[in-house]
Amino acid sequence: MWALQPLLRRKLQRRGREEAGYLQAIEERFGYYTQAPTDGGYVWVHAVSLGETRAAAVLLQALRAAQPGIRILLTHGTATGRAQGVSLLQEGDVQVWQPWDTPAAVQRFLTHFKPCVGIILETELWPNWVAECNKAHVPLVLVNARMSEKSMHQAQRLAWLSRPAYQGLSAVLAQTQADAERLQNLGAKVDAVLGNLKFDAKPDALQLAQALVWKEKFKRPVLLFTSSREGEEVMWLDTLQALKDAPLDHQDHIHAVHWLVVPRHPQRFDEVAALIAERGWKVSRRSQWTDGPNLDAQDDADAIWLGDSLGEMALYYGLSDAALLGGSFAPLGGQNLIEATACGCPVVMGPHTFNFAEAAQLAEEAGAALRVEDMAQAVTTALQMVRFGPDENAHVQACMVFSQAHRGAAQRTAQALLPYLTTN
To answer: Which pTM was predicted?
Structure first.
């Protein structure tokens, strides 16, 4: 890890050309800070990326209610996570990059901020973090913890490195019983199974209200390809082209909806726009809308809407009548479908959901999500759902029931963390 530091700097410079946030405060990643050294007492919360930061939001709300006056040290690994995390800060809180996993960088981080506890969300575990926190007597707790079968086998192949890290955690609070069992196989001490924090995240009410206003102007239903990943957009566009080239009755079918795509990674917005244009479709970008999609884009059957903004997923789900789940059509493990269902947007998912296996299974059992074998079947199923499916409203209702049934993890997690919290 020490030898890789120059490569990390080069990677940050490359990423920074597409996302300027990666060029911000680079030295923090190596344990050098502009903030004055503190007298300690921080509750360190690590949320590596955007999804974890959204989960951190509901946890922090519950922690502040349970223990008023706590000061938060918030760390991230990605630019989108850090940008989202700014909204979670209160007076006295600090936000910096996560320390690179070398003993020296972690020691400087711990010495500078003197946290009383480290709370790590979901999966982000680094061996030197654990070792140095143990030396400094800083308890580390993995919360909202998940572990896929694939990740467990990868960790087992590096057991000499992973097992001491998992054994060194003070506690683990798992999402599901299956996650708990896999984490225990790696040596972790699992204290409880508390559910998924993301069920407690409430969609942005203003965005949902805006979506309803815009949707009144639409002449056709909207189908969303959410959190699309590299390679999947090609599958999707190939499927649309095949339907477009089909007999006239099928052409009418494909043109009977508006198509909206939101890539998972913002640095790919331009790439996806170019890919759509190369296939002969027109592109209408959210960044160019003023009061919703322009009228030409609404009337044009060959226009695809591109969601090229950050922090507006509730708006996109509110506009949509159903969503194809990105990451599930290539063997990438899927993306989180909880936010979609919380917005009342039914999900059509492919075969690869191992990163969110239980949430996907529960959503399917509840009728909030449908499972298909491939992209072609996903597009056809979604079209049938919004055009000819008498059960469309039933799927929407199932989404709301499913979301409501699984809330409460934030309060349970906050209560489990109380023994570790101190205030100055």
So the answer is: 0.84
